[in-house]
């Protein structure tokens, strides 16, 4: 999708300098996000969503703080339609600007449940860490701090969290959530 269609450009003739300025703003915002600036995209004016539902879904996605996540069900309830979690998933999948409208922060309920289970196991094992990376419970391998091999097996059984699908790939979604610190 061309850059001029992603941002709200009001010039009818789409003057090249207006588009260039819009692209510069997006590039600056992405660079700020890369420095973990939680407000990096707040100043960008986006083109209107195609439907009211999409507009409400977009607003709800943009309200999820940097480093946080919400479930599809949470967003559906947030916009006043608690049974629309699948429609929220569709809105996320059809999001044309996934980093700016942070659909990667929307995850399935089972991800939240797995994180809760992981945190309970981590607490039970005295804050066990992944020996290879120093990251708390999240990869495969032996964790320091686990009291016995059964506890290590229990933690290893969780493996990498399934954060759900993403239009550009679940590995990228996982990496974005990890970068933002949302995975704990």
From TrEMBL:
Domain (Methylated-DNA-[protein]-cysteine S-methyltransferase DNA binding): residue spans on this chain: 53-110
Catalytic activity from the UniProt record: a 4-O-methyl-thymidine in DNA + L-cysteinyl-[protein] = a thymidine in DNA + S-methyl-L-cysteinyl-[protein]; a 6-O-methyl-2'-deoxyguanosine in DNA + L-cysteinyl-[protein] = S-methyl-L-cysteinyl-[protein] + a 2'-deoxyguanosine in DNA
A matching Pfam family: DNA_binding_1
Single GO BP term: methylation
GO molecular function: methylated-DNA-[protein]-cysteine S-methyltransferase activity
UniProt keywords, alphabetically: DNA damage, DNA repair, Methyltransferase, Transferase
Keyword Methyltransferase attached: yes
Keyword field contains Cytoplasm: no
InterPro entries assigned: MethylDNA_cys_MeTrfase_AS, MethylDNA_cys_MeTrfase_DNA-bd, MethylDNA_cys_MeTrfase_DNAb, WH-like_DNA-bd_sf
Protein name: MGMT family protein
Classification of source organism: Bacteria, Bacillati, Actinomycetota, Actinomycetes, Actinomycetales
